[in-house]
Amino acid sequence: MGQTTSEVSICNQALGWLGLDPIISLDDPVNTAAQCKANFAPLRDALMESTDWTFAQKRVELPKSADIPAWGYAGQFELPADCLRINYVTDSPDIYESRPMDPWVREGSYILTQSSACFMRYTAVSTAPKQWSEGFAQALAARLAAEIAMAATDSATHMGIMQEKYTMLAAIAKQDDGRQGTAQTIISNDLKRVRR
Predict the structure, then answer these.
(1) Residue 188: its pLDDT value, please?
(2) Mean pLDDT of successive 10-residue segments in the chain (196 residues)?
(3) Distance (Å, rounded) from C-alpha 183 to C-alpha 139?
(4) Alpha-carbon span 109 to 78, nearest angstrom
(5) Which of 82, 110, 112, 166 could be bridged to 73 by S-S, CB 3.0 to 4.6 A?
(6) Residue 66 CB neighbours (<10 A)
(7) How far apart are CA 19 and CA 77, in angstroms?
(8) 3-class SS at 85?
(9) In 3-state terms, what secondary structure has residue 121?
């Protein structure tokens, strides 16, 4: 985790790759700061939503809503406000995540299901750069550079180079992040059911 990583340091990494001067603050009265400020949060959330980053994972038991869906499902459970992406849903949690709930569907800020309980692992919005992996921060800087390249440098070449850099850095970051922890054991009863 990057102890010295900040929004400004990530923006300055992006600006440096584009050959532009660094900024002191996202509120600096220059176009590059305005471009960084306008794009930073949406790009951060989009990259965070793209995979199960370990630093952004949370586990919760969802509260059941008093409202019942008009049809199709017995109940609905309210999602946390910081939920970007649902990664696993169950009504009976276990360490192997081998019993996903079926059926369920996300509609708006709710999970609709037939179950009376709902547990979820999800990717949450993480706004603290010091908690992000270095790989994530580097990939975000490249994505930001690609996004602001035309407005800041008027160069399609810069934009293309930064898009390629982003693709490479994001792939490496996701691979490195996925190597943390013990590999999950997949337990399946499908073959046992077929044999019967």
Answers:
(1) 55
(2) 80 97 96 97 97 95 95 96 96 88 94 96 96 96 97 94 97 88 56 52
(3) 24
(4) 6
(5) 112
(6) 7
(7) 49
(8) strand
(9) strand
